[in-house]
Amino acid sequence: MSLISKGHMGCQGCAAMSTVRLIVDTLGPRTVVVIPACCLSVCNGAYPSAAFKIPVVNCAFETAAVTAAGIRSGLDLRGDKNAHVVAIAGDGGTYDIGLQALSGAAERNNNIIYICYDNEAYMNTGNQRSSSTPAGVITMTTPTPKQEYKKDLIGIMKAHQIPYLATATIGYPKDLRRKVEEAMKIKGFRFILALSPCPTGWKFDSKYSIKLSKLAVKSGIFPILEVVDGVEVSRKEVSQEHKEKYIKEYLSLQGRFNN
Fold this sequence. Notes:
The protein is α/β, with parallel strands linked by helices. The chain has one domain: Thiamin diphosphate (ThDP)-binding fold, Pyr/PP domains (Rossmann fold). The protein contains 10 helices and 8 strands. The longest helix is centred in the first third of the chain and has 14 residues.
């Protein structure tokens, strides 16, 4: 039985909720989830009818990483070394508003897992551009397409020399699950970036959420990688044979680009 009920408040076809469900179910019931202001806090709903069946701590937009680190310290002081503490935030709370707390927790090597479900804009407040938004995308704050390229967050996290770093999408659920399981085995700061197509913000039919998750990888637009103790690991679960034909298909299914 899933640790997230079917009656959540997520949009139809929300890749982020599918991603989070798989992650939470993999982590198991002895998990504390920290959620800043983002779509996920709305999707969970309000007590006593919240969708998550495990403890959830809602925190300020910029404090997901440091809140999770504090909870981890509290559990350690109580002698509870086995519970997992995971911060789950969108790109706004990770690339932008929460970057300082994220960097601090990574530099201190706090023993937490940090998941960014990356839907490439501030979707909870109506689709405003973030530093994760790719160039050429139309949002509420970039009615003429965004000119700047997407921030290289993976490069930033690599520079922190954390024990575990990975990218994944729900389009390849076995790969995503395995990476969560790998993160569970490691102590210290662990970071997973999960691309999460958003039907409303990306302007596509909700039935294409999984297809777009796969096309992002097949086209090479969203590289799949895994870095353990600074060394990139080569796995065979996801093909790295990128083909240009997938780029056109990936872009054409979305209405957010300047076509």
